[in-house]
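INFO batch 0412 | record 1 of 1 | parsing
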Amino acid sequence: MAQRRVDFAALLAVSADDLDRLAAQRRIVLKDEPAAVVELLGTGAEAVVRKTYRNLGMRWLQTFARRSRAAREFENLAAAEHLGLQCTRPRAWSEVRSFGFVRSSTLVTGWIDDTTTLKAALASLPRTGHGSERRALAAGLGRLLAQLHDRGLLWCTPMPRNVLVKGPLASAQLLLCDLPAVVAFPGPVPRSQTLLDLYDANGSPSRRVEWTAPERLRMLLAYADDNRAVARRLWRELARRTRSGNRWRKNLSMALRTYILRRSTHKRVDPAS
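INFO prediction complete | emitting C-alpha cells
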C-alpha cells in the first residue's frame, strides 16, 4: 500500500487545508500530461501553483531511496531565493512513497501575475519584425545564467520552458521557475562546467532553431558582461560540442557532485535565515 509522507516543516507556509480553500476559490489546469499536472489555485496575493509529478513506467524504479522531484525542486528554489536570484517562491512539498519508491510528489510555489514562459514568448515573436524584443530576451537569459553561475549554481536544465518572462517583452524581467536538477558549488561554477549550461541554453540544435545566430551571440555577450573576446571564445567552444557529448559530461557532473560528493543545494541555505 502506498504511504504518504509530507514535509511538515515546508508545509508551515501553506497547509493542505489552505490548498483546498484556494482550490474552492479558483482552480485552473495549466498543464495536464501523464507525468505532470500543473494547476493554478486561488486568487490575488494568495494564489499558488501546484505541480504534481507522477513517476510512470521505469521511472518509478529509478526513485528508490532518492529524493523526490518536488523535494529537490523545493530545495533548489529555496537556495536560489536565498542567494538573491529572481525565482518563483517555494511554499511546500509532499510526496507519496511505496516501499521506498516515489509514486508521486507535489510542489507548491507562489503565483506571479503577468508572466508567461520564455518558450511561449519566443513563439509569439516572429523572427522578422520583433528583433529588439527577441534580442532583449536573449540578453536577459544570458544575464540570468551568469548570475546563477556566479552564485555557484549549475542549472542543468536552462531551457526556455523553465524560465518565466514578466512584463513587456522589450524590457521583461526573467525569473527561474523550474530547477529540478541543480548542482551546487562552494564558489562560482568552474568555467568547464558553465559550458554544460551554455550549450543547453545557447548551442544545442533545439536552441539554434529557437534563436537566430545574432540573438545567440547577444546572449553570450550578456553572459560575458559585454566582453566580446570572451563571447567569441564561448561561441567557438560551443560550436565544437555535440549533444551526446554534452549530455554525457552533464550526467557525470551531476552523478559525481550530487550522489558521490553529496553537494546538494540545501546545504547552501541557512535554516535559521
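INFO post-check: The longest helix spans residues 131-150.
INFO record closed
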